[in-house]
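Researcher: I need the complex structure. Ligand is adenosine-5'-triphosphate. Inputs:
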Amino acid sequence: MKIYEKAPAKINLMLDVLHKRPDGFHEVEMVMTMVDLADRLEMSALPRNTIIITSQAGYIPLDEKNLAFQAARLIKDRYDVQSGVHIHLDKKIPVAAGLAGGSSDAAATLRGLNRLWNLNIPVHELQELGAELGSDVPFCVTGGTALATGRGEKLTKVDNPLSCWVILAKPPINVSTAEVYGKFRVADVKEHPSAGKMVEALQAGDFGAVCGRLGNVLEEVTLKLHPQVSQLKEAMLKLGADGALMSGSGPTVFGLVYKESKVARIYNGLRGFCREVYAVRLLT
Ligand code: ATP
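Model: Output:
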């Protein structure tokens, strides 16, 4: 028996950090959505009580450090499943890019194993399990567009009638989310982006307003550490993107583009700066 799941990448249309909590997590407000750049997971039932992860990508851990492994172990332990699974990860989402690739794989594993093992776990319970694995996992369980608060696990669905192109560009540098949050100071934030205004713009289907409301308070930290990210964002806008922003803690920069006729020019222009460029659609 085999199950297939797609694990799409997420982008943050806005990301604000309100304060650091006594438990060490940051209280955030984020509007997140998904794009059609996705990993593909193949899950095969194993008679032996074991979890095996394989991947065509040579650069991710395949042991208990893999988030798909952790998701499988969590669901097995919690629901006392005595059979095993082989999960093959066909990675397409760049790793450590600010696109929640690992979180989306974990969420897809939870959804897939719920089906493979006929567990009938309701979605909200899958999201609670996901929150134990990482702050972005609950959102990735359902996808769509959502306002995320708390440490990212409290979700409110947002109607998003928008359809546009998204150009993703990942410079060849590694950004540590922990380092970016470690260097971030709320007092240094010049302007907090508004979650409410972004939600309004989306619900109204107002593409121009969405582009005008893009904002990420982590951008300044990452841009200071890695000037290439700043250059990439400028290039994206110069080449004609209607709006551009760094996703998550970076280093991927995305550009929103309404007109298909502009896409090739922006894509080709960015390829001069970095190898990893993708032209995809917003998932609606
Ligand atoms: P986020 O936006 O949630 O911070 P990210 O896109 O920056 O995530 P990931 O691609 O999820 O980062 O990878 C972060 C780290 O997690 C990497 O160092 C990688 O080795 C590890 N990792 C564990 N499991 C996976 C997985 N299934 N796919 C990719 N990376 C994984």
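Model: Summary of the prediction. The radius of gyration is 19 Å.
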